[in-house]
Write a structure and sequence with these properties.
13 helices; 3 domains; binds zinc ion; alpha+beta; 418 residues; Nucleotidyltransferase, domain 5; four-stranded antiparallel β-sheet
């Protein structure tokens, strides 16, 4: 459905990169960080001309240090223009002197998750990443409707989270015919109410999926008759009808109905990360349940299994915020890793100078780099031929992985005896 599929790991890295960019600030709160969005099809020579113009203007900026910082940022982009290619989704470029680096940093996203709409050039105290965040949010958005005569539920799957948008009960009475003279008239009344109700639900769907939560595709589930009455209703917008990817016979509405639909649809929807993640996690639970020895969890056990080449698929929760600080002693050069959460990392950096080196006992330690736990597992997975899947915490299975199974689990090729 989308032109190019990112793996869950690539998507995770892109998210991480965007988050890092979002957190950056200019070196002295000056409006000198350059954000540049280039739509697909734009001639890069036009962009070069724009940047040269801006470079000319930068010399007029009153505050000299800001003017110089803007010029430096522009030059760092200009020096790379000849190597850039404008791809099918356009380009997003960020450059400027940041507070953490105290020198010019340059970042280019040459494969944005969606098409860049308008050319944008901004100088500000921060990088403008909202546009990229929006693209990530809309990528792969799938609409879900389950409907019967009793009610309808509307939801989306966005990346890998299920979002319930709306639930509506109907006012259509059940069809329990009592017979007698008026039975036919009552029956016709009920049919009119039903038709009116399906029309209202069609309007709700139009508003939700064409305006409020634009989707790439739509799946619909319900009992045979009901969902056909809904799908054939003239109020359902033709643009939404065109997005219908598949229709399923299911017996319920509400969250139960949505679960039933996702189960039935799992093979068709394997492209959607949530469905894929759910399948992997269910397989993991199954193997745990039958005690096959082919499912394990926890950092230490999985590292061992990776070293033995036993891991087929590694499930890594995006909720794991553990990082490692690489610490080095300036006196004796000893290096070691210290585990920390992302949030506590700045505290680790400041307190480590007061610790004695485990080797030479001098207070000469400092943090020389930050490593994410996932980077370590990614390296080991590549070496061991395992597939690493990042599992979102936006759905129930993802939360169970994080809370009950430490956030790291693996499916093995063969059982491993310790
Ligand atoms: Zn030392």
């Amino acid at each position: 459905m989308s032109e190019k599929k990112r793996t869950s790991l690539e998507r995770y890295h892109l998210k991480q990169k965007i988050r890092e960019l979002t957190n950056k600030e200019s070196f002295n709160q000056s409006t000198s960080l350059v954000t540049l969005y280039i739509p697909p099809g734009t001639m890069l020579s036009d962009i070069t001309a724009l940047l040269r113009d801006e470079l000319g203007t930068a010399t007029n900026i009153k505050d000299k240090s800001t003017g110089k910082a803007v010029s430096d940022a522009l030059r760092s982009i200009l020096s790379r223009m000849q190597y850039l290619k404008n791809g099918e989704n356009g380009l997003a470029i960020f450059a400027g002197i940041t507070a953490d680096a105290q020198k010019v940093e340059y970042f280019a996203i040459d494969d944005p998750p969606g098409k860049v709409g308008i050319k944008t050039y901004v100088c500000d105290v921060m990088f403008h990443t909202e546009h990229l965040e929006q693209m990530l949010a809309q990528e792969d958005q799938l609409g879900i409707i389950v409907i019967d005569r009793g009610g309808a539920s509307f939801a989306t799957i966005q990346g890998s989270s299920l979002n319930m948008l709306m639930e509506r009960k109907s006012n259509v009475p059940g069809k329990h015919s009592k017979g007698g003279q008026s039975a036919g008239r009552i029956e016709r009344g009920i049919e009119l109410l039903a038709k009116e109700y399906f029309g209202r639900m069609a309007r709700v769907a139009n508003g939700l999926y064409l305006e409020d939560h634009p989707i790439k595709a739509l799946v619909v589930g319900g009992p045979a008759m009901s969902k056909d009455d809904f799908l054939q209703h003239p109020f359902l917008d033709y643009r939404l009808k065109e997005k219908i990817y598949k229709v399923y016979d299911i017996g319920y509405t509400g969250i139960v109905g949505i679960r039933e639909l996702l189960e039935k649809a799992e093979n068709d929807l394997n492209d959607y990360s949530m469905v894929k993640e759910r399948n992997l996690f269910q397989k993991f639970l199954e193997e745990i349940g039958i005690d096959s020895g082919k499912a394990i969890y926890g950092e230490a056990a999985i590292k061992k299994a990776l070293e033995m080449g036993a891991v087929e698929t590694l499930l890594f929760s995006e909720g794991i915020e553990r990082v490692h600080g690489r610490i080095k002693c300036a006196n004796c050069n000893k290096e070691f890793l210290e585990s920390s959460t992302e949030a506590d990392f700045p505290a680790l950096q400041s307190k480590v100078s007061r610790f004695a080196c485990p080797k030479c006992k001098q207070e000469t330690l400092s943090v020389i780099s930050k490593e994410y736990l996932i980077d370590e597992f990614e390296r080991m997975s590549i070496e061991s031929g395992a597939t690493l899947e990042v599992i979102s915490t936006g759905h129930e299975d993802g939360m169970i992985l994080l809370k009950t199974f430490t956030g790291i689990a693996a499916l093995l090729r063969f059982p491993v005896n310790w």
